Amino acid sequence: MQEFEHIQSLWQSHSVEVKITSEEMLDQAKKEVNSIRTKSLFNIGGMVISFLAISSLLVYFDFSSWATFLGIGIIVSAVAIYTVLLYREHLLISRNDFTEHPGAFLKKLHEYQLSRFNLYNKLYWFYAAAVSVGFILFFFETLNHLNTWVQIAIVLFTVIWMGFCATILRKSYMNKEKERIDLLIEKFERISAQFKESV
User: Fold this and answer.
1) In the chain, what are the domain boundaries?
2) Tens of pLDDT, residues 66-122
3) Position with higher pLDDT, 183 vs 72
């Protein structure tokens, strides 16, 4: 037991100082920024595909109810607005060259973080409400052709899926995104401080 305590005290007294250069930190930050940019482009691409897929319903199917057209119109409008907002956020982190101006990029990164917070807290509820109303109107005509159990299953699945996305999935994604951006901001603050010291 004494040997274990002796080894433990030696281990605790031996501290290794890890130094990371500003170039290594900049390389790590560059990878993370590129990952965020790529993910942002995939999100925008997914929304554009959704926009085209939902819009194509109007071209390839013959609907007779005004409610169906209104429902699809609401969904398409909500997807279009959300896509524009995602693109605007993407521009915040893609326009600046962070290797030349880490301070300016840090400012844009703070704006991006605030924008993401607003997108997932305030604007998300507008999007979810618009899509829900759109689906309700869309279902008026389309569900009439199906039997009762299939109607109930589709409505129940839609409600559960929207609830899952609005609560568990959204919160998990928000926490992961916040942690990732916070770490990136911390790295750029250190990089900016090191550049100021070296000047």
Assistant:
1) 40-198
2) 888 999 999 999 999 999 999 988 888 777 666 666 677 778 778 888 888 888 877
3) 72
In this structure, which amino acid lies at residue 198?
Answer: S
Which tokens hold the place of 89?
A: 């956020």
Nearest to 108 by CA among 96, 121, 124: 96
Using alpha carbons only, what angle is made at residue 185 by residues 16 and 174, rounded to the nearest 5 degrees?
A: 110
Residue type, 94: S
Which parts of 14-123 fold into alpha helices (H)?
Answer: 22-60, 66-94, 102-118
The overall average pLDDT reported for the chain is 79
CA angle, residues 80, 85, 88, in degrees to nearest 5 = 125
What is the rounded CA–CA span in Å between residue 33 and residue 98?
A: 9
Q: For the segment 33-54, what is each residue's pLDDT rounded down to a tens digit?
A: 888 888 889 999 999 999 999 9
CB-based burial, 117-138: b 16+ in 10 Å, e otherwise: eebbeeebeebbebbbebbebb
